[in-house]
Amino acid sequence: MKKILITGGAGFIGSHVVRLFTTKYTNSQIVNLDKLTYAGNLENLKDIETLPNYRFVKGDIVDATFINDLFQAEQFDTVVHLAAESHVDRSISNPLEFVNTNVIGTVNLLNAAKSIWGCSKDKPLPTDKRFYHVSTDEVYGTLGETGLFTEATPYDPHSPYSASKAASDHFVRAYYDTYNLPVVISNCSNNYGPNHFPEKLIPLCIHNIKNNKPLPIYGKGENVRDWLYVVDHARAIDVILNKATPGSTYNIGGHNEWTNIDVIRLLCRIMDKKLNRPDGSNEKLITFVKDRAGHDLRYAIDSTKLQNELGWKPSLQFEEGLEKTVDWYLANEEWLNRVTSGDYKNYYEAQYAKR
Ligand code: NAD
Ligand code: TYD
Fold first, then answer.
1. CATH of the domain at 322
2. Total number of domains in the chain
3. CA–CA distance from 176 to each of 114, 126, 170 (Å)?
4. Which residue has the least CA distance to atom 3 on ligand 2?
5. The dihedral of CA 282, 287, 292, 296: what is its sign?
6. What confidence score (pLDDT) does residue 352 get?
7. What pLDDT shows up at residue 355?
8. Which atom of ligand 2 is closest in space to residue 190's alpha carbon?
9. What are the distances in angstroms from CA 92 to CA 35, 75, 89, 169, 288?
10. Which end of the chain has fewer CB within 10 Å, C or N?
11. Which residue's CA is the nearest one to ligand 1's atom 36?
12. SS3 call for 188
């Protein structure tokens, strides 16, 4: 029986990881630790929140005393660390928040794991423990017209977000080298799917199309992102957690590059049909706006290592995944309304605080 800590489990990707783990590992205890920032939404987990192997703890990874006490009390043997500030535009206006959560918060977790597992270079690396750090392909910087990010691509972050994630990755590797902490890292491309907070490109545009509002495209929409369905990311995390050797890194991505403008045109066409609007009507909402500062041109992942060594493959084509995503947002209008009105923030007080 395992005791697994998932940080950031109320967020977009974390909630899919919590769902996969609680339903698959019924003999394990899964603790979801989340601060419930604006991005944390416990309504993402309504369907699994009463499972006997699941528990939610509200807390801040930046608070070292709280984290040390939690690790001492719970004696986790596995940590899957997703908690982070994750939006590039917010990192441009408030970089320090990203340093605090993404760097200091990660180091607090590393210290707490090192302490309860008694890790040191003088002792053998504990093989029954794992610290899994979830990172991003944005640490590699930007590509030109050609080439792919591999695990050997040098780090070259450009935004405060990617710089903070790069710093946290370096700390994770340093704890492996210096203290024999059994770490693994994955760097994944852009995710999309259900429960995505509507400040990111795809859910923002789904929300705006639904409400006939402008679709803000930065610059000329020529930037390329490599999109992966969020459930496939959660599946990859599960595979890597179980099969990867300590100290290793895997890139996760679906060989699915799209310019932003092509993604939004496809989304417009899908939603013309779903909303019974005349062909071409949603495209009229596209509005080119001022470009993001330091906007990386192209991300594209080579996930050969993960596919060949651990046998993971993405399960969905993008067109199918995007249609599924639109269907989810249209079927979960209340989720979207509560997120956009801010009502989702009351869910913790109403459902959890009194427990
Ligand atoms: P998200 O912003 O949706 O969720 C982040 C979660 O972390 C939220 O629930 C938030 O409340 C929680 N959190 C933030 N600060 C915290 C703190 N100080 N203490 C405890 N909890 C805190 O993010 P996401 O998109 O789900 O990303 C999750 C992880 O995956 C991040 O580490 C991100 O860097 C990485 N990642 C994201 C993508 C993507 O496309 N979204 C791609 C690759 C990697
Ligand atoms: P985003 O979803 O913020 O993810 P990331 O910056 O981590 O890749 O943005 C995806 C792409 O879409 C990125 O190139 C920026 C662009 N974008 C827009 O054109 N308009 C928007 O309103 C947003 C939020 C993003």
1. 3.40.50.720
2. 1
3. 10, 11, 10
4. 200
5. positive
6. 87
7. 66
8. 8
9. 21, 37, 5, 20, 20
10. C
11. 136
12. strand
